[in-house]
């Protein structure tokens, strides 16, 4: 799955109507609704939208015939394997009726073209490791994490004999990281795993 790196816009005219799509990354329903409100021009006849954040998705036809705008926008998001994305497609009516099929193609096509032009980044699932190690092993563990560029280690407290580390690492590197920690600490460090939010 992918999300967008930054906001993107795309505009086209279809049978004298002007369609403007704005797409952007969002991490919550509140963020999605703020994005939609901020990028819905007041002078447009319709500001139709959709967003997907994991299993949560919403769409709105904003006065267009039911199912002709919001749903095709959502299908454009899903069709490009995107997540954590909101899209608004605004329409300024040009005097020519498009019909239900024409509206679906116009809204879905404008959203799809906007998303295709947008810069993407993969959504990476992270795991957290809670590591308890001796003071002497901390520097070796931190040095070993250099082989995992996306890993982040934070000091999370101390014990009488050592330090507590919280390490965030991509799930795909979890086994290798645990093996490295076990090796450099000669099996003395204790490691507990947990799931972190995807990034």
UniProtKB/TrEMBL annotation:
GO biological process, one term: regulation of translational initiation
Keywords attached to this entry: Plasmid
Key word Nucleus present: no
PANTHER family per record: IMPACT FAMILY MEMBER YIGZ, IMPACT-RELATED
The keyword Cytoplasm is assigned to this record: no
Gene3D superfamilies: 3.30.70.240, Impact, N-terminal domain
GO CC annotation terms, alphabetical: cytoplasm
UniProt domain Impact N-terminal: residue ranges: 15-115
Pfam families for the chain: Impact_N
GO molecular function, one term: guanyl ribonucleotide binding
Record SUPFAM superfamilies: EF-G C-terminal domain-like, Ribosomal protein S5 domain 2-like
Protein name: IMPACT family protein
Family of this protein: Belongs to the IMPACT family.
Organism taxonomic ancestry: Bacteria, Pseudomonadati, Pseudomonadota, Alphaproteobacteria, Rhodospirillales
């Amino acid at each position: 799955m992918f999300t967008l790196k930054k906001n993107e816009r795309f505009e086209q005219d279809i049978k004298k109507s002007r369609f403007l799509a704005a797409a952007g990354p969002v991490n919550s329903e509140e963020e999605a609704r703020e994005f939609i409100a901020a990028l819905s021009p007041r002078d447009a006849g319709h500001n139709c939208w959709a967003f997907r954040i994991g299993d949560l998705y919403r769409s709105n036809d904003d006065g267009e015939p039911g199912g002709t705008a919001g749903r095709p926008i959502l299908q454009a998001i899903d069709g490009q394997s995107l997540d954590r994305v909101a899209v608004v497609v605004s329409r300024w009516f040009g005097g020519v009726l498009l019909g239900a099929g024409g509206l679906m193609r116009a809204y879905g096509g404008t959203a799809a073209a906007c998303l295709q032009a947008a810069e993407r980044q993969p959504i990476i699932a992270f795991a957290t490791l809670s590591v308890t190690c001796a003071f002497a092993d901390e520097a070796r563990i931190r040095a070993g994490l250099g082989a995992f560029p996306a890993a982040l280690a934070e000091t999370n407290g101390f014990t009488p004999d050592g330090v507590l580390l919280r390490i965030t690492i991509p799930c795909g590197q979890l086994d290798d990281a645990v093996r490295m920690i076990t090796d450099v600490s000669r099996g003395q460090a204790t490691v507990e795993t947990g799931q972190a939010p995807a990034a």
